[in-house]
Every structure is written in C-alpha cells, then in structure tokens.
Amino acid sequence: MTNTSIFWKISLAFTILIISQSIFIVNLWSNRWYTAENVKGKDGLTYTLLVGLSSNCIENNQRHKPYCTTLSTNLDQFKTFGLEFSLPSNLCKLQFLNLIM
Fold first, then answer.
1. Which terminus of the chain, N or C, has fewer Cβ atoms within 10 Å?
2. Which pTM does this prediction carry?
3. In this structure, what are the phi and psi dihedrals at residue 84, rounded to the nearest 5 degrees?
4. Beta bridge partners of 47
C-alpha cells in the first residue's frame, strides 16, 4: 500500500469517529433521548413527554413551561396531568410502533 492510501484511510476513520462522538455528545447534552408527542391528558389537552438521561419532562402543547422530574422521582406525579404512563412498558411499545411507521 502506498502512503497516500493509508493516509486517506486513517483520515476517513478519524472523521467517522469525530462525527459519531459529536452526535453522542449533542444527544447527551440535550437530555432528550426519546420524545412521545400528542399524548392525551385530562380536559382533552395534549402533552409531549421528553424522556432523558437524567430527567423526564412533560410539556403542554400550548407551549407552557415544561414540568420536569428527576429519575429518582416516581412518574406518578404525571397523574396530575391526567396521564397514566408506565414508562418501561409503554416506552418499548411506542418505540416499536415508531420503527414500524
């Protein structure tokens, strides 16, 4: 192999590495690993659930300030919004449905 082809292969490998690390860091900082949109709550309001690495948030679709909990808090607090959201089971179902659609 020539030095030129080795140089381009190494350059390509580092480019792929830097891009994938950048994507991971942006997702980590945004703390939004999964979003469930248009979840129906009480009084016919719809909400957006933001499931993150260190917290979970609920946001009214009329763009009110989001209500967030840490992972150590129970998601039962979301029941005040009229939501029954069992995170482990429903999250898997929603992810599966998104893969199909």
1. C
2. 0.42
3. -110, 100
4. 39, 60
Q: Which tens digits make up the pLDDT trace of 3-25?
A: 888 999 999 999 999 998 887 77
What does the pLDDT average to over 41-60?
A: 73
Domains of the chain: which residue ranges? 1-30, 32-100
Residue 88 has a pLDDT of 52
**Any residues with CB less than 8 A from the CB of 58 and at least 6 apart, and which?**
47, 48, 49, 50, 66, 67, 68, 78, 81, 83
Burial of 68 (0-12, 13-18, 19+ CB in 10 A): middle
SS3 content of the chain, % helix, strand, coil (to 5): 50, 25, 25
